[in-house]
Amino acid sequence: MKILKKVPLSALRVFEAAGRTCSFVEAAKELDLSSSAVSHAIRKLEVAAEVSLFTRSTRHTALTTEGAMLLDHVQRGFEEMSRGLAIATNEPAVPLRLHVAPTFASQWLVPRLAGFLRDHPGIDLRISASTDYALFDNDDFDLDIVYGEPRVSSHEKTPLRIEELTPLCSPEVAQHLRSPQDLYSQFLIQSDGQSVQWKGWFAANGMPPPNSYGLAFDRSSMGIAAAAGGLGVVLESDLVAEQELASGRLVSPLRHVSNSVRYVGHYLVHPRRHRQPHAVTQFKQWLFKELAVP
C-alpha cells in the first residue's frame, strides 16, 4: 500500500498500455501522449516500486519477469474497476468481442452459447462473423477464430482440434452408398472455401475425381444444409457438422471403408497481452472444454 500511494493511477494506465503492446510508441499513440511522457511515467513507476519493469534497447522493448507479473495484476485490477463502475452507473460493461469464421460461428459456436452465458453472466459477448482476419489494433476485437492456417503475425495462435473430413449425407442417400465407388453416381456437394475439397479426398483414397459436381456453395454451412436435406453428399468436417451428426440428420456411411482426411481446420488467434485478461481466460477455458467433449 505504501508504494501504491506514491504511484498515480495514470502511471498504471500507461504501464498497462506499454506492457500490453510492448512498445512505448504504441502506448503513446493509444493514450494520446508523447513517447517521452510514457517513458517518464514508466520510470516513475519503476523508481516507486524499486524494480525494473522493462528491458530496453534501441529496437526492442520487453517486459521483465517482474513487469509481466505486475501487468497481469494491473490488467485484472482495471478490468474489475471497469466492471464495478458499469454496475454502479448502470452502464453496460465493456464487451468481449469475438471475430469468428462464419461456418464455425453458425454451426458450432452459437448452438453452445447458452451454456457460456449461463455460467458467465458478467461477460457481455459481441460476435462478428466473416472470412476476414481480426486486426486487433484497429477493430477492437479480443479473439479471432479463423479457418485455415492463420496469416503470419506476432499474435498467439492455438489449433482448436484435429478435424476429420469424410463424406456426409442424409440417411436416405446413405442407403445407396456401400463403397467409395458409389460416390460417382451421386451429386457431390462442393464447398468452395474449404481447404481440402473433393479432389483431395479422392486422391487420399487412390481414386480419380469426377469430372463434375452436382452443387457448389461458398459457405460450408449451406453445403451441410443441402446434404441434410437429401440433395447429395458433402465432404465436411465432423466438427462443424457435429449437430447434424448427433441428431442423425447426417450420417457418414463410408467412414469405415475409406480414408478420411484429418487436419487442423480452425485456430484461435489473439494478442499475447489482453485488454480483458479475465474475460479472455474464461472464454478460452470454456471453448477448449467444449471442444474436448466427444
Automatic annotation (TrEMBL):
The keyword Transcription applies. It comes from the Bacteria. It holds the Pfam family HTH_1. Keywords: DNA-binding, Transcription, Transcription regulation. Residues 7-64 form the HTH lysR-type domain. Belongs to the LysR transcriptional regulatory family. PANTHER family: HTH-TYPE TRANSCRIPTIONAL REGULATOR (PTHR30537), HTH-TYPE TRANSCRIPTIONAL REGULATOR PERR (PTHR30537:SF58). This is LysR family transcriptional regulator. It comes from Pseudomonas urmiensis. The lineage of its organism: Bacteria, Pseudomonadati, Pseudomonadota, Gammaproteobacteria, Pseudomonadales.
